[in-house]
């Protein structure tokens, strides 16, 4: 039927497979969930899952972890023991929360300890400045921001850890679905910033887990 | 010969004419300078003047003010008496200096008092934070920045005055000749920011003079 | 829960907080409204509110001002006393009315006197020319236009006040959701024009209030 | 050698061939000029000719008409007798002159009577308003403008003749080499405007000649 | 209430007002229709009318002409007597029919005789070649095409009349909603082609009527 | 009624007509299906058929072949006898399946033998490397991929047959509806890759059939 | 020194290595030429060679074939014996000749018989129509066109062979360096067209040789 | 004079200041070099230095390290002792060498051990596959690639370390100065890839040093 799960990825690369649900039918996702259920030794994530996808997964794996806003499911539901350095995730505004939570869960299910700071946009600098200690304790900082995407430049100027920037599609007009924030981040005047795709919380969480690996 | 100077603009709008040299031949600019020389009662600016343009102007108006890096000449060379509020111009990096100086001269020759703060990019926040008092004394702040264009968002969060943002073409790759900075500024998460064209120091200085008018 | 309202903004910057509803759930907006209700000393705006957002706000603050077409709510419903200069808002066509009204309400709730001129597009110049007196009485003019976005260039040529241009997404095809109007405005051949994001009536109203501040 | 001149185009379509020099070597253009010299019964234009191209043409056809700024040559040098309606060409600013002259010459060599109005940009509306009579005598109006490209919308609102709009690459930054003006013109809020390629004075002149044909 | 109909346009420009419905509420369109009903001496078009708009118009003007697919209504329903030259409209594919019909109706209600040729795309050249006689009888040809937008170049090579090209949003992927066809047409290798906005059948019909005016 | 089927295309070009349903009403498609039913000697494809289109076709041609996911119908339902070389179709991920199947059916109904390899994306190179023998038996390989679109470069490095690359709109954010994959493929560092439009399975299948023709 | 020539490519893929000179220093290209000189059994192409590159190659391989306009060198200078089907290359205008010749040479040095038709643009259809017999004798047709890029759609409608379309950067303004032609070709309304990168004569010649392989 | 060196950055962030030369005059760069010469305790990099910039630096700091092709100078010339994990840099083609070397030097001068693999593009997979052991010994891999930018996706599928992808401007036509490679990398189908700006070797080297920090 055309689906060829890469469940050996954990063995090969050390990190588990994730199922990108967006382009699949609920039937396809359900079939994958059934196969996943045979491998409780491997943690599997389902990302960008709409309600119908989630239902199909939960039908096969009723105890799966599910964060509806973040569109993410995980099975088995208990994250592995934590190891490596600490991941700090910073979100600029409330509207960035779904993506920020996708980062948090992904890094957690890949075995890292994670802390989340929200509503720290640069329009009120005091909000990020008062969290400087938390930021400086991180092995890697993930910054999630839409609109002007200015926050990663500011954060990278405050810490010595690498910064992973996640542009979000929050905004309108000339934000062009996150392109404005993406470009801001690619052109950061602070060195130490790298960028993932717009709204790609999964990719940022995965990368953060790799950077903070033991 | 097709040129129809709008020297009555001062009467009509209260602000003098400026000659945009970039698309004109030195001969055309020289002819305009000759005409300008008959009207010492009006201040005229020549903007985006290359070396050949400047030479043509200075041949007709040898005592004209000339800032070569900013590509700007003014005649008569003495700015009018200052009036209205104070204009503060902030530049993110050294490479933004030519545009920042175009802002400064334009506002000065339109009769405002101007102060310039340079090298205040967000990669080292302490540099802008220690100038908070200067910023708060302004009737309007002009912020000039290339690359990520993040500085106006930060400045607008610190002051109650309106902020005019000038994106510059400083940068490379995905800065797309200033487009990245332009989009950042249009999507500023701080209210109170408006934007002019990339590298348009003249436009920003003009607008600042209007905002700070008596 | 990740939300960190900046209600001290009035103290810090002199202008109140506004809640951008578009990326938030009605539940989040409702929770904010509840908090807002504890601070009748501060005027709070809710912008880009859909019907569900409005309902959530009105459930907490039943007497809030609501302009459904403009997607805006304000509480307390009575604007502060007016002060400073006059803001004149000009709209090119009927379809620009929702954005124009967002400008009007924002400036009013920030304490300015506001006048609105509608249907003044350049296809029939007599419509804007006959309002010259109103335009010249303004401390700042906000021009709202979609499609070709040509109106701000014409208005800026008629007045000595600064012009804030708001491109709207009105149009189709090569208007690219307002990009055509945005570019027109950024390239205005009349000095004295600055630009905010597409459909950003809130930003323009805020800026106009700052420019016309006492 | 790969070149296959379409000198029969006059017979077939009623309008002569034009040689687009930009992508050709001076040698190729010279060879074409030699062939053209055998057909004095047909008017041939050479467009977008740089200095080396012009030299190659003039070597073969020493009496050819040459406007260096417009990059255009014509042979035989005397235009045909005029017929049909009048073509009025309007240019926004001095920098648009080279393109405006390409329009003028093309229409003249295709047999039309042409009048040129320059420096009529919308920043000073009085300049175009005082030429209303000239505009209204036209069978077709060609409007040439860079930067904001707002002039065609204004002109089309004043006349009943069709308007051909020519965006020019005059401007900088977000004018994107004429794209801003092109989009403005495509989105004109005045009906009766059609558009040709950026800087395409030849195309506009040709079209105007066809529209004003007897 | 902000609406300022330009019903004097017929007097001023010789062509009637058209109401662009897309950005208006059905209530606003209904109010306009009521006003239109007081002026049976003037032909008024309603363009880009959805079902709710059409209903609102027909409620006020029950005998109005309505082409649902073209989204166009006209009142009074009888077109004026024809005069001037003939307009020929050519459509590339069946999917371009709604736009082609918008062209046809607009030119008819502006007083021209119109002929429509459909399904004449360049993939089967014989289809357009066999209509050469019809094409050559035209005073102006309007060519409507999506996808590659190649048809206007071919048609312009066959006729001496001017060609108005209308790109449509027919296509997918890299057609970018009509941008590909628009660019093709702007870069036509046949002189004598000008272009209107994507899907702008109204603009093309208006222009054709002006070109073919008596 | 404006529809002019090109059923003689088989005679003229050797390949049957295909009906592009996306821009047509179900009624138009039904009328075409009726006409198609009179020509059982010719294979006709209906592409990009939604449910309503399919219903209209099946009402006229109840035994037509229908793949709903691929949006494709064919009549008569039996493909012609196979001839020529073998076509191998490779899909990167499960989400590319609908487009990959459009390729497969098109090539089959044009008379080729086709083999499909799915889920062979470059994130797990072993998946494509183990199919090297199948790839090398192909006369032409069609590679279907979204997101990074990297697979065709890898495949073209492994085979001597020409590769037709089909970018898909699978992805989000900076995939820009398939533009990222399209650009990757146009810039392939492996020679021997050509590209069709985003999601254009029909075009790729047609071309593959032509390349592998006897 | 970082260079790792893939001279085994002939063995692996059946086609020789080509050296892309554009991004290399003349010294690097010279060093490669020296290595190439040790392998007279393999045909090697140097593409996009400027004058300095060519000089460096000819210093090592004085008898190499060199077409300066096409920026191509080949060694050994004698092409292999021809085999497989015939490749026909069609160029739209004289300015497309350099790219067309890059196609011709590449296919010749990969062992195909090639015929070139130039100046066959769609503005004068008779020029391509009179070459129908030549076109129909081809196993594959390569069409090279800039500006509107309309020629491949027309050619593909005339032949049953596959068409490889090469957009060129010939044009100006809204041709965007070949993007307009590229999009036209990707959206061809004639099936059977695939596209390579702008100005990629090498890629098209390579692909044509593969399609026409014995 | 507007320049405000951030030489305390080492103290604050743990990494030294770098001087971006591109937008500065040689005089400005020379003045900075003089100041740098007073701080031999801190390593300073000069990036994007043209010949005139390099000369100005070497005049002040004659023993500075200088890689002309990479546009980079460093002073003091001896890199600090190495510490932390190993950085492996992979370049796709010879033309990517200048950027790859900018990565190498930056990471070296920030105290890491670095290994460089060149000419490993995906057109010949064996070249990267045979370096698997080197890749797997890395704490972080930096992949530098232009054109299709496909290499990072392949590399990330082979290793468990994080991958920093650097798109280069190598290519032509639809590579759009590196945008194609940038988009490929942002859309990588392998998790664990993050991206920096086009040609930003400095940024990638800095980030790699941070990721591999002790
Ligand atoms: N939300 C996501 N964004 C980007 N890549 C993802 C996402 N979720 C999963 N992936 C990757 O895409 C691959 C899934 O593709 P598929 O095989 O079509 O499910 C997995 O191997 C993941 O590494
Ligand atoms: N640097 C500049 N950028 C944008 N607009 C300018 C600039 N300099 C002058 N202008 C405006 O453009 C007009 C000059 O156009 P021109 O008549 O062609 O010289 C003046 O009236 C100015 O208001
Ligand atoms: N400046 C121009 N812009 C656009 N098209 C032109 C121009 N000059 C000539 N042409 C057209 O392009 C064709 C010339 O192409 P060529 O045969 O390469 O000289 C002519 O047939 C003209 O109709
Ligand atoms: N899915 C498709 N994508 C691109 N072109 C298609 C597709 N289906 C059919 N076509 C072509 O478009 C033409 C159909 O246009 P129409 O006459 O409007 O049905 C046919 O002649 C096909 O060659
Ligand atoms: Mg998978
Ligand atoms: Mg002027
Ligand atoms: Mg907030
Ligand atoms: Mg020609
Ligand atoms: Mg109106
Ligand atoms: Mg058809
Ligand atoms: Mg190589
Ligand atoms: Mg600095």
TrEMBL record, chains A, B, C, D, E, F, G, H:
GO MF entry, a single one: hydrolase activity, hydrolyzing O-glycosyl compounds
PROSITE patterns: GH18_1 (PS01095)
Recorded superkingdom: Bacteria
Domain PurE: 85-214
Biological processes, Gene Ontology terms: 'de novo' IMP biosynthetic process; carbohydrate metabolic process
Name of protein: PurE domain-containing protein
């Amino acid at each position: 039927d055309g689906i060829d799960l890469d469940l050996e990825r954990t063995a090969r690369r050390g990190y588990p497979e994730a199922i990108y649900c967006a382009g699949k039918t609920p039937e396809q996702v359900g079939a994958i969930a059934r196969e996943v259920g045979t491998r409780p030794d491997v943690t599997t994530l389902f990302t960008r899952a709409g309600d119908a996808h989630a239902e199909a997964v939960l039908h096969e794996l009723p105890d799966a972890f599910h964060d509806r806003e973040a569109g993410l499911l995980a099975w088995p539901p208990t994250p592995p023991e934590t190891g490596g350095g600490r991941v700090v995730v910073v979100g600029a505004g409330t509207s960035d929360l779904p993506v920020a939570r996708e980062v948090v869960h992904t890094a957690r299910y890949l075995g890292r300890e994670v802390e989340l700071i929200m509503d720290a946009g640069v329009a009120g600098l005091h909000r990020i400045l008062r969290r400087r200690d938390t930021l400086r304790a991180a092995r890697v900082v993930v910054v999630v921001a839409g609109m002007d995407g200015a926050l990663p430049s500011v954060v990278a100027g405050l810490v010595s850890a690498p910064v992973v920037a996640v542009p979000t599609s929050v905004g309108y007009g000339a934000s062009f679905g996150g392109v404005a924030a993406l470009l801001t981040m690619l052109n950061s005047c602070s060195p130490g910033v790298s960028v993932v795709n717009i709204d790609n919380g999964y990719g940022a969480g995965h990368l953060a887990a790799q950077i903070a690996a033991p």
